[in-house]
Specification:
The protein is mainly alpha-helical. The chain is built from eight helices and no strands.
Length: 239
């Protein structure tokens, strides 16, 4: 079905319940949300390349994942251009600073488990949840882009799951500490973007619920017990 059916006497009805994509309020909020996804894809690229230095036998696969993230970045940049919105990149860089700093610290310490938790579990689950909630209320151009991106993000989440699953017997202590250090940051990030997300008709409660679902499903796939998962998920309520 075309987006605009010229035979319809009331084409606006097709947009019933969607945001006003042309409003100044929407464009202002979108400048920050769009910047977050652009910056998130760039940082994901950089993180996967960096992980290749810790896992040289996996460097080729990690480089492939990184290239996918740059493709996503180009797509989301086009989404902003389509709406005539300039992404607020300084805001986005500040937004990711806590997780970025923790990733870089873990990288210098050679902590593969912590790096994978931050990028391949927390950030990917964060992205998947945001895209799930965004797609139903996105403009048609951005919806098509985002639907393609979210399929790729599951591949990235799966990479982290499989590596951690294969090493489960040796990762528990570091994973648990890294989770306590970083899961609360994701909750604060959601809090920090809640007002702008609401303008895009993305409610914080829905974002958090979808994130925790993706996160807990990932922990299940890795092989953690229900009791371990409940304890680790509780860290989101701390801080």
């Amino acid at each position: 079905m075309p987006f605009l059916d010229t035979t319809s006497p009331a084409p606006a009805a097709e947009n019933d319940g969607l945001p006003d994509f042309a409003s100044s309020a929407y464009k202002s909020a979108y400048s920050r949300i769009n910047a977050i996804v652009i910056e998130g894809e760039q940082e994901a690229h950089d993180n996967y390349i960096a992980l290749g230095t810790l896992l040289p036998s996996e460097a080729e696969e990690l480089a492939r994942l990184a290239r996918m993230e740059l493709k996503h970045k180009k797509g989301f940049t086009a989404c902003g251009a389509n709406l005539g919105v300039e992404a607020d990149m300084p805001f986005a860089r500040d937004f990711f600073a806590p997780l970025r700093n923790n990733f870089q610290k873990a990288l210098t310490e050679g902590k593969v488990v912590t790096c994978l938790l931050i990028q391949a579990i927390l950030i990917e689950a964060f992205a998947i949840s945001a895209y799930h909630i965004y797609i139903p209320v996105a403009d048609p151009f951005a919806r098509k882009i985002t639907e393609g991106v979210v399929k790729d993000e599951y591949l990235h989440l799966n990479y982290g799951q499989e590596w951690l699953k294969a090493n489960l017997d040796t990762i528990r202590e570091e994973f648990d500490q890294a989770n306590r250090d970083n899961l609360p940051l994701v909750r604060r990030m959601l809090d920090g973007v809640a007002a702008d997300a609401a303008v895009l008709q993305m409610e914080k409660e829905d974002l958090m619920a979808d994130f925790l679902t993706s996160y807990q499903e990932a922990l299940t796939e890795i092989g953690f017990t229900s009791r371990e998962i409940a304890r680790m998920a509780a860290a989101a309520l701390v801080g």
